[in-house]
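Dear colleagues,

I hope this message finds you well. In preparation for our joint manuscript, I am sending the Protoheme IX farnesyltransferase (Brachybacterium avium) sequence together with its predicted structure, so that both groups work from identical material. I would be grateful if you could confirm receipt.
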Amino acid sequence: MTATQGASVRNSGRDGDRTPRTPLSVLRGYVALTKPRIIELLLITTIPTMFLAAGGFPSLWLILTTMIGGYLAAGGANALNMYLDRDIDAKMKRTKNRPLVTGEISPRAGLIFGIVLSIVSTLWLGLLVNWMSAALGAGAILLYVVFYTILLKRRTSQNIVWGGVAGCMPVLIGWSAVTGTVSWTAVLLFLVIFFWTPPHYWPLAEKFSRDYADAGVPMLPVVASRGKVAGQMIMHTALMVFASLAIIPLGATGWVYGVGAVAAGAWFGFLVVRYALRVRRGLSGKALGPMVVFHGSITYLTVLFVALAIDPFVTL
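The corresponding structure tokens are as follows:
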């Protein structure tokens, strides 16, 4: 962190201290450090994966302990990410109200909170689920904090591609929670999310490209032409759909998942190709519609994994 960046963070903290702090506001600050919306991705991907691995309903206790452990792991990683990125968060409109920027939570407290959550999540998964899941959870934390936040985010335009590996781990954790192992089906689900991440995140980065440029973060939409970004999105979407369909020949899924994967893949593929054609026509802003693709990616993943969750319970 440069001296200027450090001063920005310190000034932000002083400004935040002028606002009265209450126990409730501090509690909200700690909750915000965990990025609670991450629970949506955990629910969408982990529970259906557990259904598929079990061939039906796993025990409610196993689902509950796995979800809590997964949330603690994600929360710890997110808190450490905010600690490390507090200088650039202060420069971006999208992140300037985060608790370590406003001063609601001190950097030291945020660091300790992230470390404690990370340790507790590993012990929780190890003692209440199994040590394979615990190892995968710890690996996800290290990938997000060290591999993505420290090594990649500020150095390469491919940061979200490889850094997104951490976001793929919930399916492996969910599968191993039920079986104690990781199968080829779980690996393909991992690849679905891996290839999904760039066409999901780059449209958001396109909308906030000025923010990223001001913060010095080389997201692909900041450093490359829109045409190149659109081409990369098409490639990743095609690989994502291929990985989703490759699960079917393994015999772990039935017709519900097959229909869902084909229909959702075709629909999202249409959105991405339409986006690329709009880029080629030179459209921008709302006419380009990057957020349509962003929200569409969330719908795609939801439909795919809902089909995955229903599939074990439907037979012909």
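For the figure legend, we might mention the following. The radius of gyration is 20 Å. Residues 11-180 form a domain with the Tetracycline Repressor; domain 2 fold (CATH 1.10.357).

With kind regards,
E.M.
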